[in-house]
Amino acid sequence: MTPEELETFLGLRNSTVMATLNPDGSPHMTAVGYEYHDGIFSVSTTRDRVKYRNVAADKRVSLIIRGRLEEGGGETVVVVSGDARLSEDREEAVAMLRRLVDKSYSKDVADRLFEDRKDEPRVVISFRPKKTSAWLQIGRSALNCPTEETAMDFFEVVHTQRSIRRFKPDPVPDEAIWAMLDAAIRGPSGSNSQPWIWLVIRDDEKREIIARAVREHFEKTGRWEEMKSNLKSAEDPSRRRLLGRAIDFFGNVASAPVLIVPCLVRVTSPDTEPRSLLSGSSIYGAVQNMMLAARAQGLGTVLTTFNTFIEDELRSTFHLPDNAVPVCVVPVGYPDGQRFGPTTRKPVDTVTYWDDWGATASRPS
Ligand SMILES: Cc1cc2nc3c(=O)[nH]c(=O)nc-3n(C[C@H](O)[C@H](O)[C@H](O)COP(=O)(O)O)c2cc1C
User: Fold this and answer.
1) Model pTM?
2) For residue 259, is pLDDT > 60?
3) Ligand 1, closest atom to CA 305?
4) CA dihedral of residues 27, 30, 32, 35 (deg, nearest 10)
5) Closest by alpha carbon to 40, among 143, 100, 126, 106?
6) Do 182 and 105 share a structural domain?
7) Hey, which end of the chain has fewer CB within 10 Å, N or C?
8) 226 and 311: one domain?
9) Ligand 1 midpoint to CA 161 (Å)
10) CA of 163 to the centre of ligand 1 (A)
11) Spatial distance between the Cα atoms of 199 and 260, rounded to a whole number of angstroms
């Protein structure tokens, strides 16, 4: 199910149940109202409810949502599952309660419900879906609806993984970083030499050292002025957007809550010179795996090469040995006001030759 399909489905929903796990492993199901914003589902509840106690003990949670995949389409059940986070921020929970009752009831009923409930010990349960499954019930949407588990389709991940340069300050769970790195190390390398170390930088001060070094470099070399004048003269709106975001991002690379610096270490195959194009082939495939794994978890990334401007600072701040060479810097975080794909690319049949240079073929539709 694509993010757009999920959005449509949520717009046409008509009931929702939250499932949590009781201590004996049986499911606890209860009707809820929820909010969905930037890929995160949130529910306002109280500390004395079973669902709150359950997720405090076992964070696995699902929403079972009945609705439609398209206007006039048949009924479908979608289950979104993930790991819950609890926020004890009462103010946030009360504000959410207000929005939920306003959305669901007439003004009089909403006011009364809000008055009745606002003083309860309210909390927010939120989660980002790790898995989305859809089940068909009846109707026309049978034609399009995926009927099997659709954690996130591989091709959907590939087609929507695009450069993200604006990040929310929300922390990235370590578990998500491990999953990215575990995907990275599945990448290819000459003779399976795996000549890499993945330096993960979360520390605020250290990210700030990097951000400062980048700013200083841009100021010293006049790159700011150059980028700003490129922005001014750019006519294509997507290039303007790219340049605008790049300027913002380079102004504060610490705005990404995590920076990952993949390093080639003791590279032996297919080349021994770590700065050669051939050596890069033993790590950049792994970097792309890492970025795809980020996208599959709703995390944004962008491959940057500003490591080349600030290599001295990277070496001294993180004590890199001489035989380690940073090959790029990949900022990681939840996108802020930027959506994932689809990406802009030349059509595949215009960049493909078959059996002889220049021999194109059109792709059957
Ligand atoms: C070798 C390489 C270097 C890149 N360097 C930067 C960079 O320094 N800063 C940046 O914002 N994007 C950088 N990018 C990202 C590209 O701008 C981006 O992949 C390209 O415009 C396609 O956009 P998309 O990923 O959103 O489809 C780099 C990409 C590659 C492959």
Assistant:
1) 0.64
2) yes
3) 8
4) -10
5) 126
6) no
7) C
8) yes
9) 12
10) 7
11) 6
